[in-house]
Structures are given as structure tokens and as C-alpha cells.
Design a protein that fits this description.
Structural class of chain A: alpha+beta
Strand content of chain A: 15-25%
CATH architecture of the largest domain in chain A: Sandwich
Strand order of the largest sheet of chain A: 1-8-3-6
Low-confidence stretches of chain A: 1-5
Order of helices and strands of chain A: HHEEEEEEEEHHHEEHHEEH
Number of domains of chain A: 2
Oligomer: homodimer
Chain lengths: 251, 251
DNA sequence: CGGTTTATTGATTCCCGTCAAGCAAGGTGG
DNA sequence: CCACCTTGCTTGACGGGAATCAATAAACCG
């Protein structure tokens, strides 16, 4: 059945990216965030940013570090998580090109409350919270956009609290896979691929279960022909059947 | 042991409040949010607000309603929750005097994602999202403050995801009681009272458990002399012992 | 003071976490 | 390019923590 042995997930490359100036300008200009600015304003803002490359699995910052910068994903995929005792982490979010993270609030918190790790090799732009604050004051519409970014995440976090609180493990895994598809889903000739290197353990950390439970649930889905998956990759081959599984009418 | 039969929690009164103009001005002026504004600016902003009284248990808005207003608690206590199937709600937050809720983001979401209900009789100020947006544009520092409010809540929501995911039921209940104490704790001659009408079911909805489990855990705490409690009230009588319970070193 | 809501407690069931062993995939170096 | 080693996935057996069902008791309210 599964003729694909190699993982179909693109992890870009194993080398470190270092973003050129014009790549940075293009990235920033494309962001919904900065899209209303004119070229000269954009240029000025661009100058306040640093860029830095990260290898696969490298850490960008750790929970507890002083929260002095705001980051933007220029290329690659980043995961945010809260480290727990004995490898019991909780995965909070997976970020893509254009997503903001770090300290978005100028003076809000003194230390990061999560850890940021690069899932693929990546290029990250960053700006000091102070400079970001100055930009927000100069362009109030940007502050409102930041507010909307935060609201979206708060709603997602609350949705997740709801799901963990009310759904059994299997449904939690299904709805989590669905949000992953919405975020990084890619149509391929073998179904909808979740285009990020997500392990069973990652899924467990997203769904408040264990890798073993995730494995059992996934095995069942595979044997019923709904998904295909392997080492750090998942593809949904029978979309209709999959949505059936997510039907959250009866808990 | 428990000589107190009546609930010590003050639910203000059963009558509807209607905030007078000068009460409103005082409330708004006291908010960290508006504290930097001068009296005339404050007056101008005050005019954009409506005020409305709610009885105990009355609903302010429902999940799914069009999200057209931003609210401020002037007096009373409000709970926000996500309604689930078959009474399986999830309690998201308890709000006090000065707290903002509703649509804080001007244009962010089209409908409320939670339901707001008055725990006590209360007085609520509100403003249209559009007017609020105009104010934010006029006073960029307010937008940054909104951002910080949102960040704080996002961090709290993530912390809760972490707790639900990693802690056993008893510890979840303890840490939840601790956050309630931080929020509405009141020193009395019989220990630290949680000054809000919180039922076993409310606690269950906050901790992803059931009323029965909460009751069992609370009974144990009562028999070991750490807390006293009754119908919709909880008081921590042995603070040191209670903090021991919250020691989150070994899961 | 009766009716309703909330809390307590017990008995039972079961989902899922834990422990453990075996296997497959992927990367590495000769 | 293949043997080796590491890392991640699978599967089974078992036990425990908490949900469910149910019946009683206490507190509150009109």
C-alpha cells in the first residue's frame, strides 16, 4: 500500500540561510503586517531589523530568557513550546513564513514564556522590542494589526483548552491534524500532505496525550485507509472519511 | 469544625445597578488603561460609552453573536466560558472591576467566541468596536496597552494548556485555586476567602475534570484542615500547607 | 417551610498512561 | 554503497486515575 519510503516533507536544506537585504525587503513588504506602508517607510523599518540563520533543530530562544526582541519568520518553520519536567513539553504553535513571535508587546513581559526551535533550517528577522515600540507608535495601524494577531492566537489557545477539556484522545488528534492541514497542508498526488516534520511526540505534545497513544490512533487510521504516514510525515489520503472523524457532535 | 453555615461571599445585591455618569468617569479614570489621559480627554472618551446593569446569572452576550462591542467591568464579577454539548462548558476567565472583554480588536473577529455571564449583579460599560478603533488610532499608547492586556491573557491561556496537559487532577485544582486567590482573594478572620461565587461545577469547568472529582479533592483538603468550603464558597485556612500542595516539582 | 439547586460519597467501568520489547527508517563513515 | 548506529515508530500487557451512574444530604430561595 505505502510505496513511499522516503519522507515527502521538504525540510529545505541542512544549511544555514542568511537572508540577503533584498530578500528581507521582499519578506517584510509581503507581510499583511507591513503591506500598507510605502517603499520608503518599508526601507526605514527594514533597517531596524537584524537577520539570522538557524539550522534544523536549533534553538532561537529559551523560556526564561530576557524577552528583548520581536521575531519574524522569513523562511522555514518554527515551533514554540513550553518545556516541562522530564521531556513532558507542551507544543504551543507552529509558525510559518510571515508569522511574528517573541515579544510583541514592547514592555509586556520581562522573559519569554516559551521556547522557540527551528523545525527546518530557517531565516529569522528580528527587531528590538524598543524599536518595535517606536514603530508601533509611529504607525498606529500596525499596533491594531498586532492586536489582531494576538487576538487570533488567544482565540486559538482558548479553542485548544476547550478541545483538551472536552474531547477524547482520538478526536483531539483529529482536530489537531485538521488545524495542521489548514496551516501547512499541501495538495500532492498522494493526498493532502502535512508539510512539516511532525513526529508522534510532537502530536502528543499538541494533544495532551502520549506518543504511544498517537501511534495507536494513527495505526488505526492507516489500516482503515484514511491516512498514510511514516517517520515525521503524515498525509491524508481520504479527505471525506477524515472529516467524518472530526465530526464533533457527540463527544 | 465548620461553624459558618452561610456563604461569606459577597454577591453585592440582587438588584440591577445602573451606573451614574460620575461613577462611570471615576471607573474609567481609575483604569490603568486610561490613566495617562487628562480630564477632558477622559470626558470625551466617556461620552462614547454606554452603561448597562445586569442581574446575577444574567447573560451579557452569547458565543456566536456578532462581535460589535468592547466591554469594561465597572462593578461586579463576570465569567467568560465556551459552551459545549450537554452542559460540558469550559470556563475561560473570571473578570473583575476594570477588566476589558468582548471585541478588543476593532475588526478582528466577526462573532464572539465565548459567552459572558454575570456572576454577581454588575454594571458594565461598553463601546462600539468602531469607536474603540477611533480612540486607539488617536491614542497609540492605548493600542499598546491593549496589546499588553492581550499578551497577558495569551500567556495565561498557554499556561493553562500546559497545566491541563501535564498535571493530574488534584494539582490542576490546586493551581486553579491559587490563581483564583491571586485574582479575588480576600483576607478574612477565617483565612483567605475566594471572593466570588464559584461552584464545584465551575471549578470542574476550569480544570478539565468533573464536579464529582472536584468534590472529592476538596473533601480531602477539608478533612486535612487546609481549606473550608461550602455551597459556592471556598476559603484557604492553612496557607502554608496549601502552597505545599501546589509544589509542581514532581508531576 | 417546601422545592430546587448544589455538594457529598460509594460502586463500577474504562480510557489511556506506563513499561517494555522489537522493528523500520535515516544518517554516517569507511 | 553497504554495515552500523541512532532515532523514531509500533504493538502488547497491565494498572491506575478519573469519569460515570446513582442515591443521599445539606444549603439556599422564594
Amino acid at each position: 500500500m505505502n510505496t513511499r519510503r522516503k519522507s515527502p516533507v521538504n525540510i529545505i536544506s541542512t544549511e544555514v540561510h542568511h537572508c540577503s537585504m533584498d530578500l528581507r525587503l521582499k519578506i517584510l513588504g509581503r507581510l499583511p503586517f507591513f503591506i500598507d506602508l510605502n517603499p520608503s517607510e518599508l526601507m526605514m523599518i527594514n533597517q531596524r531589523f537584524n537577520s539570522l540563520g538557524f539550522k534544523k533543530d536549533e534553538f532561537i530562544y529559551y523560556s526564561g530568557d530576557p524577552a528583548e526582541r520581536m521575531f519574524v519568520v522569513a523562511e522555514g518553520k518554527i515551533k514554540l513550546f513550553q518545556p516541562g519536567f522530564e521531556r513532558r513539553n507542551v507544543l504551543l504553535n507552529i509558525l510559518l513564513e510571515g508569522d511574528l513571535f517573541g515579544n510583541l508587546t514592547v514592555f509586556g513581559s520581562s522573559t519569554y514564556t516559551d521556547t522557540a526551535q527551528s523545525l527546518t533550517s530557517s531565516c529569522i528577522l528580528s527587531i528590538s522590542s524598543q524599536s518595535f515600540g517606536e514603530i508601533l507608535k509611529e504607525f498606529p495601524s500596525l499596533a491594531i494589526k498586532s492586536l489582531q494577531v494576538m487576538e487570533k492566537r488567544l482565540i486559538a489557545a482558548n479553542k485548544r483548552v476547550f478541545e483538551i477539556s472536552t474531547l477524547p484522545a482520538e478526536k483531539r488528534i483529529v482536530v489537531t491534524l485538521l488545524t495542521l492541514v489548514e496551516k501547512v497542508g499541501k495538495q500532492t498526488n498522494q493526498g493532502v500532505l502535512i508539510d512539516a516534520p511532525i513526529s508522534r511526540e510532537d502530536l502528543a505534545e499538541m494533544t495532551a496525550t502520549t506518543p504511544e497513544t498517537v501511534s495507536r490512533v494513527m495505526s488505526q487510521f492507516q489500516s482503515s485507509g484514511v491516512i498514510e504516514s511514516g517517520r515525521k510525515w503524515i498525509s491524508i489520503v481520504d479527505w471525506d472519511a477524515f472529516q467524518q472523524l472530526a465530526n464533533v457532535e457527540s463527544p
